[in-house]
Amino acid sequence: MDSQKVDMFIIANSKYFESHQVIQVRDKLLQMDDSKWGIVQTLQFKDPTISLIVSLVAGSLGIDRFLIGDTGLGIGKLLTCGGLGLWAIIDWFLIMEATREKNMDNLQRIL
């Protein structure tokens, strides 16, 4: 894979991954076959900042977990009203990392 394309991808999408994962993503993209490049460019990543805002506004309803694809946890939060509020508060600190991990999982599935 062309390193210039990979570097542009990293610049445009680095906010969707943890800082320690960016180097790993770059290495995997450089080793990737050119035929998968179109698929990688069309991937839609979840924005961690949007997840945090949704968590602050409607976290006790589990909408933040539904947004990133954690359906089971979303149902659990919905049924327990965010763990009586405690789970919702904890997720304020964890939701951005969970979103970035889901983005990494989606990328690794393609690679």
From TrEMBL:
It is found in: Membrane. Pfam families: TM2. InterPro entries: TM2, TM2D1-3-like. The chain crosses the membrane at residues 49-68, 74-95. Coiled coil: none annotated. It comes from the Bacteria. Keywords: Glycoprotein, Membrane, Signal, Transmembrane, Transmembrane helix. Its main location: membrane. PANTHER family: BETA-AMYLOID BINDING PROTEIN-RELATED, TM2 DOMAIN-CONTAINING PROTEIN 2. This is TM2 domain-containing protein.
